[in-house]
Task: inverse folding
């Protein structure tokens, strides 16, 4: 019987599809330290971002033929090494776009009304300090008419743009490779195309009220450090749901302290799963534990796509 390891879990629908055609699906997690010793016992492995599959984990690949990445980023897999060892690597690049984009909108709407902060203090102080909290959380802002810089204009960036257009925001797209000139939108039965202006990266940094990042993990240095932060508008809002390290965390804390950055929505961190407590505790940070792709709908799509690709691969 072919064995598939779902080391970071798989939606029940995907597991069922695999089992129905005769795969054994193992969901007990193998720790990072023990992965190299056991990976060769499986015909396929599926991971999210938590499990790293590096060259050292693949030196004895045994019966391993395929690695499925549940999600977009392949930075946790040494794909080149795997392919030279004859192991197929694939990801599910479209399945979670709506989920990630909707988390950005949730962070943005939350930050615009200081909800991330109010939600921390209300349970502790709301009963005795209501009037003061009401003053403290006044002075929100509306999103309509604000400029939203979207850095990385692939599937997730475009999905975010569609949602933000619905909120009346002005879109400032930037992509290092290609920025489309129109955005195709579908709202219920209505579909239309919106023209998109082209921007340079610095123009986005300098003019946007809010900047959301949708780029792969950065190898050498943060995409946003002190010098990039200095180019931005005073009181800019930053959202990172891509990868930890895209915004330099120390520089961000300084910019939050000085008021240069009004607030930051962060779903991803350096050193996950042990992020720096300073960034999490900062009152200007709306933080979530890397849940961008975590909707029932996205996980169902991912589970089905993983299972289908593996079934096709083994022609089962
Ligand atoms: C992705 O790259 O799609 C996400 O980071 C997946 C995850 O949540 O692990």
Result:
């Amino acid at each position: 019987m072919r064995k598939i390891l779902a080391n970071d879990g798989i939606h029940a629908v995907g597991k069922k599809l695999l089992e129905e055609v005769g795969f054994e699906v193992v969901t007990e997690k193998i720790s990072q330290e023990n992965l190299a010793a056991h990976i060769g016992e499986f015909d396929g492995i599926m991971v999210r971002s938590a499990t790293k599959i590096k060259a050292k984990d693949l030196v004895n690949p045994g019966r391993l033929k395929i690695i499925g990445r549940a999600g977009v980023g392949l930075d946790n897999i040494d794909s080149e090494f795997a392919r030279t060892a004859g192991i197929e690597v694939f990801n599910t690049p479209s399945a979670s776009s709506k989920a990630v984009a909707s988390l950005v909108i949730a962070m943005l709407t939350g930050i615009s009304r200081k909800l991330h902060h109010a939600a921390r203090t209300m349970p502790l102080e709301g009963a005795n300090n209501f009037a003061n909290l009401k003053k403290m959380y006044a002075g929100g802002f509306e999103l309509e008419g604000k400029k939203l810089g979207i850095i990385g204009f692939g599937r997730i960036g475009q999905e975010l743009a569609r949602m933000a257009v619905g909120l009346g925001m002005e879109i400032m797209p930037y992509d290092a490779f290609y920025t489309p000139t129109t955005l195709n939108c579908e709202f219920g039965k209505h579909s239309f195309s919106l023209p998109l202006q082209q921007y340079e990266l610095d123009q986005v940094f300098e003019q946007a009220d809010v900047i959301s990042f949708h780029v792969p993990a950065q190898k050498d240095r943060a995409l946003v450090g002190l010098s990039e932060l200095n180019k931005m508008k005073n009181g800019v809002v930053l959202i990172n749901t891509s990868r930890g390290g895209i915004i330099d965390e120390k520089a961000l804390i300084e910019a939050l302290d000085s008021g240069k950055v009004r607030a930051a929505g962060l779903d991803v961190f350096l050193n996950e799963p042990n992020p720096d407590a300073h960034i999490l505790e900062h009152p200007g940070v709306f933080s979530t534990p890397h849940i961008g792709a975590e909707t029932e709908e996205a996980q169902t799509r991912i589970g089905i796509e993983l299972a289908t690709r593996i079934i096709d691969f083994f022609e089962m």
